[in-house]
Amino acid sequence: MLIKKPSDIRSSEITDEKVYVNRREFMKKAGGIGLVTAAGLVIPSACDAGVARGAAAASSAGGEQVKPDKLTSFEDITTTNNFYEFGLDKQDPSKNAHTLQTRPWSVVVDGHVAKPATYQLEDFIKPHKLEDRIYRLRCVEAWSMVIPWVGFPMADLIKRVEPTSKAKFIAFTTLFDPKQMPGQRSNSLDWPYKEGLRLDEAMHPLAIFATGLYGKPLPNQNGAPLRVVVPWKYGFKSIKSIVKISFVEKQPRTAWNDANSGEYGFYSNVNPKVDHPRWSQAKEHRAGELRKRDTLMFNGYTEVASLYAGMDLRKNY
Predict the structure, then answer these.
(1) Is residue 228 within 8 Å of residue 209, measured between CB atoms?
(2) What are phi and psi of 199, to 5 degrees?
(3) What's 222's domain CATH number?
């Protein structure tokens, strides 16, 4: 099987946004026919075009579905990125991330689990059912996108490795290799990049490991070959280029919380009522739109609210 690297994919091979949306509508009417990615992986028709929704479990539990949104263009998604490992400006990752080698790729799973192991990427993904998820992703700087991700529920991996009763949190670590990631030669953050979730957050049906977008393997600048997507949190929680997943008992350290805890909390749920110290979070600028729009609580994914029952979301920001 030929698997193309993102840098090998010609622009003419990328599915046009209109074609992608029309194809999704056709598959909906055809009864859920899957599409085949460049990696030869069949993706079930799990979402209608332009609709950001959770997995079936979330919907059956009464989870609220957000209104249809126009997909952000492939160009905008892949040229406007926060990925400090490749530079501080949002255009730097698309210019510099070609240095990242994503094959071979291994992921260590350790900590309080019954089945710790080091997985090759293909072995890591193969047992899981890949799905098509269209999610909003909201950046703390008040800009947002609507991205058609390819991935699988985080809960699938968690169940597979069998966490013990001591596992309360899940911690993620990005690759550390300054030769491939020139931004790591600076002291802008304490490398390698680290992030974490409470275990119940990671188990929620909306949380996924992403392996692609727009039906193609993840471009390097978007976190290839494996990243987290947690759509109700600010984008920096969705850690990229993961090489280690640890199940831990205590709340793990995270990159931006370590850098400035007064501005970047551990939870980092999208909350229009909690302003960043340097700007308001009440409005957001959707890529491709001129006018700002109101920020939705939890980015519109209100079915996650039960995870934080009894918590002060101003204090636990």
Answers:
(1) yes
(2) -60, -35
(3) 3.90.420.10
**Could you list the residue range(s) of the whole structural domain that residue 140 is in?**
14-308
Instruction: Sort residue 272 into left (φ over 0), alpha (ψ -120 to 50) or beta.
Output: alpha
Query: Minimal CA–CA distance to 241: which of 206, 280, 291, 191?
Result: 191
pLDDT tens-digit map of 265-300: 999 999 999 999 999 999 999 999 999 999 999 999
CA distance linking residue 234 with residue 242, whole number of Å:
18
Domain count, the chain: 1
Model pTM score: 0.84
pLDDT of residue 41: 33
> What does the alpha-carbon distance between residue 257 and residue 249 come to, in Å, rounded to a whole number?
18
Residue 5 lies in a domain: no
Distance CA(101)–CA(99), nearest Å, equals 6
CA–CA distance from 116 to each of 70, 107, 113, 176 (Å)? Answer: 41, 11, 6, 21
Cα gap 219→204, rounded to integer Å: 26
| pLDDT over threshold 80, residue 89 | yes
Helices (H), the chain: 17-29, 56-60, 74-79, 92-96, 121-125, 154-161, 199-203, 255-259
Q: Is residue 7 part of a domain?
A: no
Any domain includes 229: yes
DSSP character for 290? S
Please give the sequence-ordered ranges of beta strands (E in DSSP) within 104-193, or none if there are none: 106-111, 117-120, 131-138, 143-153, 169-174
- pLDDT band for position 14 (50/70/90)? low
